[in-house]
């Protein structure tokens, strides 16, 4: 049987506010346990929440960026359950009246095509604290630093059809929240977490299969692996005559498997009701217009502009617009060198592999955009060849010069374009390889083609790569044939 | 000295007839001597009180002259007081010393009021007899075999017995007005949002409101002036200016339009209390008021609506008492579930557990619409009734309670009969309007209260009318024998 996968994602994005959603405590990651927990965060009797206006602004920014409906008012509700790191015994969240309503996000698939993913809603809520099970000798430690950190829970429609699409969607959300400056996107620190609702159905069937929810997957790679594993598990289960049960599962990256956490029957009845300590949040139209006016260029708009203005391929444009920092870097290189294709190739090629190798972010790049742009200018004006450029790039990365010009000058890498000098050098090369020259001249066209490369290699070697490759080709041909 | 009202104390302190330290010391001695009969205090903070009194005397010597400077009071034990036990009269908070002051506590301390201690109450303010306290029942000074009302029963008993001239209380369904009525006191529940709830341990957040209990309307005006005002720490606190309650006390009542709801005088009301209400109305007419009959048609739905909404909110508000971070924790918990179950099962009393169960049920999947949502709709209707009534009249007058104080233990086995005693007070909480109860006579030697209700933020009108009434009557001056 042919199976179709249906996926809906719930992404929790930690909002980059200075203070918590309902208290004045700081939200810095990694502080000593319980040093960023105020009376409110500790759930002290008699304390009350006061909503952080910045969290509302950030949620609205997101809503506008996904073309969502933003209602005139939204309501906080209490989600009641007991857990030691949930200090009040309820999480203040939103239920019937979320701040962000229906919207959508267009994602780019690997083949360059675009797909629209519906976003059901996004709502504000507070994070819980952390239970620490190590180092407490059979007891549990509670760290409430994270309790009350603002989260935006972004719920997608079940529009996603594969693990790869899921990853593309999460990456698009990741890029978007970073573009908007509302979330740092640091998945390792839990700033962006993902719950995956996964089901399968026979291809062509309209009704959804029973879904399982995989909780808290925290990297792009794990999202793909967890979903693929879960899909496989469900298909095998059904094909063996079993049925999928609605349940919450946990992905174990070490074993690459999901396992059951709790079934629907064991699920809490959260007894949601409107939080009586908070008034409905009224969103003025003027407030939204003010935010809309200040929205930055978003990833999709940037991608389209890159394609349109710089004639980049859909793929290149989507890679370069994937993060605001990378896009800014690319545009800075372009501003210097005025050659989009070369700039794109160098940023996506040499620069990316350099950063990957050293595990650096673009804003930590050892080669600045100005340096790279300056170097590309020298490729364009034939001062250096592409091959020499790689040496210049490495030198810049190693800090061996402030600019490409300085490196070229210091290392004497300037390309030789004087045809007299190239001819003299070629004569020496041909003389030193007289036997091969004889063979070449005796060969047919096909064989000659293969042998020609040998002479080019020898010539470039003799010139230490500095001879202009075009001229070498042309003059060599004349000498061998002539 | 213990017979002095807050207003008289202010004049005495200003005239240097006595010092704040002398006054507080005298009242502390009186508490030590008499409170064992009443059980109105959970904690007496003698040392702290004398230090506060000395500080107040120093401020006065330096030229300050505030109306509450040096005035002795005490707080219901659900207002958080930094470093002082704040128990909500519950075993689950028997060891809880609040790490901060409630806004009300803070404001009154800043005004120079001297807190003598923390007052007994129904556990978590759930009750109308003060019998559900972990620290034992409070007795009514007018008859030690009778309840003082609740939940601010300790506040009422202590003020009625002249242990303190005034106290803070809170009112969720009548918890200031009903004990005031049962102990011959004046008590005011302000408009919801008039007094900050920061630091006031929540029972039912959308209904709870702090307010004063004292002997006279004038004293309520003095104390409310110190309590009321916007507080950015409470999102439900309303940013409207606080009226000059004292200045409003002496306004003439000529032209005041009084409404008497016909629904108030049905079955269940003691006829002698009905007579007391009509007698009050006669006095007010003499002062220039006009009277008409009005209707509050949805009043009968108030008790069921209240007993869904309040327990629903309570079931959530009380979840934080889990034995994890503060308060009572059971011995040797075997695992997390055991910790929760036994800490809460052993820490909460029967009435609190009953309301948590009711509230949890009302919010459960499948029941929410039938109970909680429906109750909220009823609440809206009740509010609309009042809004419509106040188009016609300036003030609603009626009984505070259907009966005078009942005997200790009399309704313990029948919680619903105790719930029904709240019929006249609960609607003001559901609608959010202010209400005041004032002394209006006696039945079988037990005090009777009459309730005044006014539109939103018209506390000044309530105090004005009560004060004018108290200028021409002397019910409020009667003292229980033995005190």
From TrEMBL, chain A:
NCBIfam families linked: gatB, PRK05477.1-2, PRK05477.1-4, PRK05477.1-5
Subunit note: Heterotrimer of A, B and C subunits.
EC number(s) reported in the record: 6.3.5.-
Main EC class the enzyme belongs to: ligase
Gene3D superfamilies hit by this protein: 1.10.10.410, GatB domain, N-terminal subdomain (1.10.150.380)
Residue ranges of every copy of the Asn/Gln amidotransferase domain listed in the record: 328-480
Originating species: Pseudomonas linyingensis
UniProt keyword Acyltransferase, yes or no: no
Coiled coil region boundaries: none
GO BP, sorted A to Z: glutaminyl-tRNAGln biosynthesis via transamidation; translation
GO MF terms, alphabetically ordered: asparaginyl-tRNA synthase (glutamine-hydrolyzing) activity; ATP binding; glutaminyl-tRNA synthase (glutamine-hydrolyzing) activity; transferase activity
Record's protein name: Aspartyl/glutamyl-tRNA(Asn/Gln) amidotransferase subunit B
Catalytic function, reaction form: L-aspartyl-tRNA(Asn) + L-glutamine + ATP + H2O = L-asparaginyl-tRNA(Asn) + L-glutamate + ADP + phosphate + 2 H(+); L-glutamyl-tRNA(Gln) + L-glutamine + ATP + H2O = L-glutaminyl-tRNA(Gln) + L-glutamate + ADP + phosphate + H(+)
Keyword tags: ATP-binding, Ligase, Nucleotide-binding, Protein biosynthesis, Transferase
Its job: Allows the formation of correctly charged Asn-tRNA(Asn) or Gln-tRNA(Gln) through the transamidation of misacylated Asp-tRNA(Asn) or Glu-tRNA(Gln) in organisms which lack either or both of asparaginyl-tRNA or glutaminyl-tRNA synthetases. The reaction takes place in the presence of glutamine and ATP through an activated phospho-Asp-tRNA(Asn) or phospho-Glu-tRNA(Gln).
Similarity field: Belongs to the GatB/GatE family. GatB subfamily.
UniProtKB/TrEMBL annotation, chain B:
Name of one Pfam family that matches: Amidase
Signal peptide: none
UniProt GO MF annotations: ATP binding; glutaminyl-tRNA synthase (glutamine-hydrolyzing) activity; transferase activity
Domain of life according to the entry: Bacteria
GO BP term, pick one: translation
Keywords tagged on the record: ATP-binding, Ligase, Nucleotide-binding, Protein biosynthesis, Transferase
The keyword Mitochondrion belongs to this UniProt entry's keyword annotation: no
Ranges of residues in domain Amidase: 24-463
Active-site positions on this chain: 76 (charge relay system), 151 (charge relay system), 175 (acyl-ester intermediate)
Reaction(s) this enzyme catalyzes, per UniProt: L-glutamyl-tRNA(Gln) + L-glutamine + ATP + H2O = L-glutaminyl-tRNA(Gln) + L-glutamate + ADP + phosphate + H(+)
Gene Ontology CC: glutamyl-tRNA(Gln) amidotransferase complex
EC numbers: 6.3.5.7
Alphabetized InterPro entries for the sequence: Amidase, Amidase_CS, Amidase_dom, AS_sf, GatA
Gene3D superfamilies associated with the record: Amidase signature (AS) domain
HAMAP family registered for this protein in UniProt: GatA
Known function: Allows the formation of correctly charged Gln-tRNA(Gln) through the transamidation of misacylated Glu-tRNA(Gln) in organisms which lack glutaminyl-tRNA synthetase. The reaction takes place in the presence of glutamine and ATP through an activated gamma-phospho-Glu-tRNA(Gln).
Oligomer and partners: Heterotrimer of A, B and C subunits.
Family classification: Belongs to the amidase family. GatA subfamily.
Name the record gives this protein: Glutamyl-tRNA(Gln) amidotransferase subunit A
Encoding gene per record: gatA
């Amino acid at each position: 049987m042919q199976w179709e996968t249906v996926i809906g994602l719930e992404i929790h994005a930690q909002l980059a506010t200075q203070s918590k959603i309902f208290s004045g405590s700081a939200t810095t990651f990694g502080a000593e346990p319980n040093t960023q927990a105020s009376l409110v965060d500790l759930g002290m009797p008699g304390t009350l929440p006061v909503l952080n206006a910045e969290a509302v602004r950030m949620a609205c920014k997101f809503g506008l960026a996904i073309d969502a409906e933003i209602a005139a008012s939204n309501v906080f509700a209490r989600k009641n359950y007991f857990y030691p790191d949930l200090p009040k015994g309820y999480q203040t969240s939103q239920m019937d009246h979320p701040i962000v309503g229906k919207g959508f996000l267009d994602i780019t698939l690997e083949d360059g095509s675009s797909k629209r993913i519906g976003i059901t809603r996004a709502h504000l809520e507070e994070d819980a604290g952390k239970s620490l099970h190590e180092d407490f000798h059979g007891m549990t430690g509670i760290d409430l630093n994270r309790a009350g950190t603002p989260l935006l829970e972004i719920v997608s429609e079940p529009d996603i059809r594969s693990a790869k699409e899921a990853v593309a969607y999460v990456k698009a959300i990741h890029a978007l929240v970073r573009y908007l400056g509302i979330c740092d996107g640091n998945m390792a620190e839990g700033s962006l977490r993902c719950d995956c609702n996964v089901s399968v159905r026979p291809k062509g069937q309209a009704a959804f299969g029973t879904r399982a929810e995989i909780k808290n997957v925290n990297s792009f790679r794990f999202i793909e692996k967890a979903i693929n594993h879960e899909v496989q598990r469900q298909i095998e289960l059904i094909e063996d005559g079993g049925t999928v049960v609605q349940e919450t599962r946990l992905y174990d990256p070490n074993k690459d498997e999901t396992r059951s956490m709790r079934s629907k029957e064991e699920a809490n009845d959260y007894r949601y009701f409107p939080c009586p300590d908070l008034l409905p949040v009224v969103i003025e139209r003027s407030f939204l217009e003010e935010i809309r006016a200040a929205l930055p260029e978003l990833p999709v708009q940037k991608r389209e502009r890159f394609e349109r203005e710089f004639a980049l391929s859909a793929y290149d444009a989507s890679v370069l617009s994937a993060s605001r920092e990378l896009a800014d870097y690319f545009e800075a290189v372009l501003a210097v060198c005025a050659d989009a294709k070369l700039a794109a190739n160098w940023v996506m090629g040499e620069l990316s592999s350099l950063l990957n190798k050293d595990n650096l972010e673009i804003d930590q790049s050892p080669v600045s955009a100005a340096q790279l742009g300056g170097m590309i200018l020298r490729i364009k004006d034939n001062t250096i060849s592409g091959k020499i450029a790689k040496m210049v790039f490495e030198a810049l990365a190693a800090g061996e010069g402030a600019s490409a010009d300085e490196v070229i000058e210091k290392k004497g890498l300037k390309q030789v374009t004087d045809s007299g000098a190239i001819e003299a050098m070629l004569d020496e090369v041909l003389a030193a390889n007289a036997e091969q020259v004889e063979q070449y001249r005796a060969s047919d066209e096909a064989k000659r083609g293969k042998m020609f490369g040998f002479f080019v290699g020898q010539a470039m070697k003799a010139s230490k790569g500095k001879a202009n490759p075009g001229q070498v080709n042309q003059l060599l041909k004349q000498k061998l044939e002539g | 000295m213990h017979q002095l009202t807050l207003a008289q104390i202010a004049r005495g302190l200003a005239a240097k007839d006595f010092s704040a330290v002398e006054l507080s010391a005298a009242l502390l001695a009186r508490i030590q001597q008499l409170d064992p009969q009443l059980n109105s205090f959970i904690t007496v903070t003698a040392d702290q009180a004398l230090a506060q009194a000395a500080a107040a005397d120093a401020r006065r010597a330096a030229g300050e002259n505030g109306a509450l400077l040096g005035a002795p009071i005490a707080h219901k034990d659900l207002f958080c007081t930094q470093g002082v036990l704040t128990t909500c009269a519950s075993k689950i908070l028997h060891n809880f010393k609040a790490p901060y002051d409630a806004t009300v506590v803070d404001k009154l301390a800043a005004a120079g009021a001297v807190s003598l201690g923390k007052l007994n109450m129904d556990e978590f303010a759930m009750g109308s007899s003060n019998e559900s306290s972990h620290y034992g029942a409070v007795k009514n000074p007018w008859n030690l075999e009778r309840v003082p009302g609740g939940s601010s029963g300790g506040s009422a008993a202590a003020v009625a017995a002249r242990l303190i001239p005034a106290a803070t209380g809170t009112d969720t369904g009548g918890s200031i007005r009903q004990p005031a009525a049962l102990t011959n006191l004046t008590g005011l529940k302000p408009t919801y949002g008039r007094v900050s709830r920061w630091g006031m341990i929540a029972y039912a957040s959308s209904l709870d409101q702090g307010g004063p209990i004292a002997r006279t309307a004038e004293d309520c005006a003095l104390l409310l002036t110190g309590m009321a005002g916007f507080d950015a720490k409470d999102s439900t606190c309303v940013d409207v200016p606080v009226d000059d309650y004292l200045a409003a006390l002496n306004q003439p009542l000529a032209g005041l339009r009084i409404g008497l709801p016909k629904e108030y005088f049905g079955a269940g009301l003691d006829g002698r209390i009905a007579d007391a209400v009509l007698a009050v109305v006669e006095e007010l007419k003499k002062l220039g008021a006009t009277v008409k009959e009005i209707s509050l048609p949805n009043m009968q739905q108030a008790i069921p609506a209240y007993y869904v909404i309040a327990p629903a909110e309570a079931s959530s508000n009380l979840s934080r008492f889990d034995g994890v971070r503060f308060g009572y924790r059971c011995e040797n918990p075997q695992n997390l579930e055991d910790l929760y179950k036994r800490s809460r099962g052993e820490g909460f009393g029967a009435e609190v557990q009953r309301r948590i169960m009711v509230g949890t049920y009302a919010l459960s999947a499948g029941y929410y619409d039938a109970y909680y949502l429906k109750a909220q709709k009823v609440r809206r209707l009740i509010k609309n009734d009042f809004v419509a009534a106040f188009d016609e009249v300036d003030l609603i007058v009626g009984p505070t309670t259907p009966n005078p104080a009942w005997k200790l233990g009399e309704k313990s086995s029948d919680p619903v009969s105790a719930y029904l005693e709240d019929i006249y007070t609960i609607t003001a909480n559901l609608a959010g309007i202010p209400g005041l109860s004032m002394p209006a006579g006696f039945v079988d030697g037990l005090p009777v209260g009459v309730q005044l209700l006014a539109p939103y933020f018209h506390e000044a009108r309530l105090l004005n009318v009560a004060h004018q009434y108290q200028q021409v009557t002397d019910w409020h001056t009667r003292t229980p024998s033995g005190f």
